[in-house]
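Moderator note: this is an archived Q&A kept for reference. The question asked for a predicted structure of one protein chain; the sequence and the answer are reproduced below.
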Amino acid sequence: MRILLIEDEAKLARFVARSLEAEGHVAVAVGRAEEAQLALAEAGFDLIILDLMLPGMDGVQFCRALRARHNLTPILMLTARRGVKDRVAGLDSGADDYLTKPFALEELLARVRALLRRPRHAQPIELRVADIVVDVQTRRVRRGDREVPLRAREYALLHYFMSNPDRVLTRPMIEEAVWGYDFDCATNVVDVYIGLLRKKLEAAGEPRVIQTLRGMGYVLRAEGCGAREE
């Protein structure tokens, strides 16, 4: 099994990774949530072991962003915090299990085995909204009869919209789901990327499907297309 280990304590990460590999797993260790996002974009994993206290984006933020993108990979959260509120926050963010530090290696491996035994939720192979089709496995996007080439961030943005058709998505919701952390409130990165995505989706003169709701956010219309905004 492929396991992604997100732990900023280098010595502990090496120890856990070696132990997982001794059990026959492939372990990929990174020290930051941002590095984990890149690893997940490049390959699939069967389990994620996630430290709660990370530099930059913490474990709860990472977990919420991952679940917002409908990634259902099992997550075992690690932390030195022992408070009930901390455990509740971790589990409520989307973690499947929680283990406090320091922990016995035998218990960690047992929890890994237990999570890997759980049946995986089936994820859709394709997402279809209006005349747009996203192949989740190959990341190929089509609109009607033509293929739409997208870069990684543009694909993540479209995937989020396609997973939430007819739902109003605010800028903070999009930032957390697609970028995984909060931007400065003055940034217009969401608007810029939506503009880039629209340009590619409408390259052959197709109607606009990603609509702007003034003062609210954006929505992908499953039925009916509005006029393009100037």
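Archived answer notes: The mean pLDDT is 85.
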